[in-house]
Amino acid sequence: MNPHYHVCHECDTLNKISTPNRPGRYKCANCSAKLYTYKPAMNERIYALNLAALFLFILTNYFPFLSFHVAGSVSHANFATSIIYLYRDHEWLLGTAILLTTIVFPLVRILIYIILFGSQFHNYLPRYATHMIKILNKLLPWGMLDVFFLAILVSIVKLVKMGTIIPGTSLWAFILMVFILAWSQSMYDPHQVWEHIGRRRKALQQKEKLATI
Amino acid sequence: MRAIDKNIAACPTCHNLVQMPFGKQKGYALCPRCDSEVYMRKSDAVQKTWALLLASIVFYIPANLLPMMHVITFAGTESDTIMSGVFYFISDKSYLIAFVIFTASIFVPILKILILIYLLISVQKRSCMHRQRRKKLYVLTEIIGRWSMVDVYVVGVMTALVHFAGLTEIKPGIGANFFLLVVILTMFAAMSFDPKLIWDIKECNENREQ
What we know:
- The structure holds two protein chains of two kinds.
- By secondary structure, chain A is of the alpha+beta class.
- Helices cover 60% and strands 15% of the residues of chain A.
- Chain A has two domains: 1-38; 41-212, no CATH class.
- Chain A has seven helices and seven strands; from the N terminus they run E-E-E-E-H-E-E-H-H-H-H-E-H-H.
- The model of chain A has no long low-confidence stretch (mean pLDDT 86).
- By secondary structure, chain B is an alpha+beta fold.
- Chain B has two domains: 1-40, no CATH class; 42-209, no CATH class.
- Helices cover 54% and strands 14% of the residues of chain B.
- Chain B has seven helices and eight strands; from the N terminus they run E-E-E-E-H-E-E-H-H-H-H-E-E-H-H.
- A four-stranded antiparallel beta sheet of chain B has the order 6-5-8-7. A two-stranded antiparallel sheet of chain B has the order 1-2. Chain B has a two-stranded antiparallel sheet with strand order 3-4.
- In chain B, strand 3 (28-30) and strand 4 form a beta hairpin.
- In chain B, helix 1 (45-65) packs antiparallel against helix 3, helix 1 runs antiparallel to helix 6 and helix 3 crosses helix 4 (131-144).
- The model of chain B has no long low-confidence stretch (mean pLDDT 85).
- Classes of the chains: A alpha+beta, B alpha+beta.
- At the A-B interface, strand 1, strand 5, strand 6, helix 2 and helix 3 of A face strand 1, helix 3, helix 4, helix 5 and strand 7 of B.
């Protein structure tokens, strides 16, 4: 592979990378910001991890999340219960924000990963791959399951003095999902996907040229 | 060697290198690989960041003064602001929780706002000082921004769990809405700032090369 150039997104330095396809982390020469990581077998790993995450996502939203016992009375909560109560109290802004950041965005992200890397695993590129990656780039900072995990720990400690908290099946699935998603995120290297897309685009353009001749 | 000197810009979506057709700061090109609009720098980065930042400062005041949640019992309603929650946990000797809440909902937003103000002013004054450190500060604001959402989520989880009709109920207060807006606005402000501006001042680069 020829050496290629890479512009640092933090300080705009042109970095020359002579061995772009050697596994490892690549850093900017000026400000040592991370340029990209190259990991072999990224497709297969991300595909597998996100299939597992999708399964856990369904479990998380289906089974009871936490139960809270105080002096004889019990309240059960599913994962989405807080959103339902917020909407019932006409807290539209809070309800929508929690709905989007803990359910919609993570689900869209998992589905995009599965479609994108699953179809690459089966040696073809989905039609709207560029659009999917654009959506993914916009969504990534707004999927906040890891923050939600911390919030659950804080609220459990807050409530533990008032009564008994019984974790449900869904809580364990949720914790596992947070770790699996973080793991798959650490492997995500968009450059490999883009190179694939770029090669296919060039091939298509050449085909069109031949057709016009 | 910097990309701006060669009139090259990286596509924000796919990092493809694109030769810019016009001069240094104006116009955009279409990335041949992914059809995104490629600008040399994020457009109007400083103005946009200032606007979002000022809005978030304005919202930060009611977020701290108005109640985050109401605890409704048969004895009456008790309202909690962020600070009163922290003091409650300190008086309760749960220092870890007090620390987490204080860091996530008071320290981090203020830190973020101060860092962004510092970055904006230093870019506008064309300062050459501490450029590596400023870049690190910017990366820090991008990473810690999301974690302020903890307090909003805690309010949500508490409303879901403490829901015994007639006995005890927790309902979110108006302060939670303002706090949510502060978090969202500061995240957008950090995204609209362009760290490349820190390195763009010509005189600094010339001095270093001599």
